[in-house]
Amino acid sequence: MDQFTINILFVGASFALYIGIAIWARAGSTKDFYVAGGGVHPITNGMATAADWMSAASFISMAGLLAAGGYANSTYLMGWTGGYVLLAMLLAPYLRKFGKFTVPAFIGDRFYSSTARLIAVVCLITASVTYVIGQMTGAGVAFSRFLEVSNTAGIWIAALIVFLYAVFGGMKGITYTQVAQYIVLIIAYTIPAVFIAMQLTGNPIPMFGMFGTHVESGIPLLDKLDQVVTALGFNAYTGDVDNKLNMVLFTLSLMVGTAGLPHVIIRFFTVPKVADARWSAGWALVFIALLYVTAPAVGSMARLNLMTTIYPDMSEQVEDYDAAASSPILYADRPNWIRAWEHTGLITFEDKNGDDRIQLYNDTNEAFTGTATERGWEGNELSVNNDILVLANPEIANLPPWVIGLIAAGGVAAALSTAAGLLLAISSAISHDLIKNTINPRISEKGEMLAARISMGGAILLATYLGLNPPGFAAQTVALAFGIAGASLFPVLMMGIFSKRINNHGAVAGMLTGLLTTLLYIFTYLGWFFIPGTNMLANTPDNWVMGISPQSFGALGAIMNFAVAFVVSNVTAAPPQAIQDLVESVRYPKGAGSATHMSH
Q1: What would the 3-class secondary structure string for 44-83 be?
Q2: Residue 127 and which of 135, 467, 511, 543 are 20 to 30 A apart at CA?
Q3: How many other C-beta atoms are found inside a 10 Å radius of the C-beta of residue 262?
Q4: H-helix segments, 468-503
Q5: Phi-psi region of 514 (alpha: psi -120 to 50; beta: other; left: phi over 0)
Q6: How many CB atoms lie within 10 A of CB 163?
Q7: Would the pTM of this model clear 0.70, i.e. be above it?
Q8: Average pLDDT of 173-201?
Q9: Mean pLDDT of 18-31
Q10: What interhelical angle do 504-526 and 553-570 show, nearest 10?
Q11: Is 213 helix (H, G, I), strand (E, B) or coil?
């Protein structure tokens, strides 16, 4: 049986499972659609939350970024993990005690303002749509390779599948689908990692293997990797970063963005009690950790495998290796996995010096390019998209065809599970907070569910269109969404729970400040609404203010949000006593009622 047929069988079987679950658990009421009826077990919810959380960015792109950037890109790992702890400790139980379906509902009621609710809806949609772009990008990468179609066709196929099971199932369908997707993606991620760790280090536990000895050369794996990448003009894999400020801000931005992500927050409304919200968060952290402790090993081993595929003699122990004097493989002898990925356009080769060999090196390193030019190398000839490394890993390591089929299903599951959660957050914000609570309070339950499904369909189309021209790799696009959520929603949620003094004027001013400053900074470098060619400055470190990248600005947006909200609240009237009493009761998360509709 050929690889394509095996891929189709694995991906097709997983799709049949997801759509079957969505039909079995389809939403019959708005409570089912928004919070799965409010009776999900904490372990089940923890697993679903982990799948919701571990998107294409975590599964496909994070290890690719670690492979490309080494220690410098460990900020993704630190920021996302730390942010989840923030969410579990500081927000989830209190929001569950408050008992509203959605984030804008909490903001609207806590700050006794329909304007605050409306701005929260705008913030939520902006962050969620940006996030969905990253999922569509990742899904497109997975589909294009494993269904052997173009990247564009892959994105449209992903959009159709998400539409089918998210629109019909609502939160109830999505919850049980995400449990299945978590099981698929964690098996798909860890099995290839175990195989590759065994091949390279003899240790079946990837995270231990990464710090173990490279079998072929007899030296520590990370030392070997440093030796190989520096020989080709790249920065040392374990090297430190120059701009510590940007690194700290980026980690903070991912942390506050995680804690402000509406699609993860609404998962905590699906459990019966406040204690269950805490247990859900704990279980989710356990399930997330299984992937996150494996990702650095996957990234480092993928990078070493890629380099030694192109330069086979590098895999042995070589002192003072002179890459420019080496003979990389002939293009005609390239392995099948490179041929397969070339069809997608995500690996490209350009024979710049006409020698029919693949020169892969850092042609931006002036110290290295001089030597390379003397050897007749005209520039780096192989371009490899970061997002493919995890998906290509089993092929690079010559693993059995069924492992490749399994990781195909896992990559697709990761992208689709998060896309579904995000689309639910968008649709509930539009149908529940915008239409039912602002435009048409008399709308029937049937009309509200129709509006939710239509808005979900519209969001899928918009995200798909933007996913065809994404502003970066999947994880980079997702990092922008975290910045937007962290700058706009996280501060107002924190102040709403922990401060009685913050009033409606402060909340509105803070959210607008955080959202607008962050968007302005991002659009300056990445184009207005991410449209290519509309950026005002080139997205290079030379142009960044104080070396702060667009992905890192969310932390500063959040600080400005807190500051403006505090100042405005203290020069205007205090919130009504009833609201202050409400904040006091929410602060002690015991005895919460079930999630409810709006009180007004």
Answers
A1: HHHHHHHHHHCCHHHHHHHHHHHHHHHHHHHHHHHHHHHH
A2: 543
A3: 27
A4: 474-488, 490-498
A5: alpha
A6: 19
A7: yes
A8: 85
A9: 70
A10: 150
A11: strand
Name the residue among 205, 204, 226, 223 with its Cα closest to residue 213.
223
**Residue pLDDT, tens place only, 496-551:** 999 999 999 999 999 999 999 999 999 999 888 777 788 899 888 889 998 899 98
- DSSP conformation class of 111: T
What are φ and ψ of residue 220, in 5° steps? -55, 140
Q: What is the dihedral of CA 64, 65, 69, 71, to 10 degrees?
A: -100
What CA–CA distance (Å, rounded) separates 505 from 513? 12
Residue with tokens 């913030």, as numbered in its chain? 123
Structural contact between residues 274 and 592, judged by C-beta atoms closer than 8 angstroms: yes
Domain annotation for the chain: domains and CATH numbers: 3-305+392-485 (1.20.1730.10)
Q: Are 165 and 6 in contact (CB under 8 A)?
A: no
Buried b (16+ CB within 10 A) or exposed e, 451-486: bbbebbbebbeebbebbeebbbbbbbbbbbbbbbbb
Task: State the CB neighbour count (10 A cutoff) for residue 445.
Answer: 13
Strands 347-349 and 382-384: antiparallel
Q: Which residue has the tokens 């509309």?
A: 534
Burial of 132 (0-12, 13-18, 19+ CB in 10 A): buried
Enclosing H/E stretch for 457: helix 445-467
Half-sphere exposure of 556 (CA within 13 A, CB side): 20
Total count of residues recorded for the chain: 600
> Closest Cα to residue 147, out of 161, 130, 166, 168?
161
Instruction: Say how far apart CA 131 and CA 419 lie, in whole Å.
Output: 8
Q: Determine what percent of the chain is predicted with pLDDT higher than 90.
A: 28
- What's the average model confidence in pLDDT over 281-295? 89
**Statement: residue 97 has pLDDT above 50:** yes
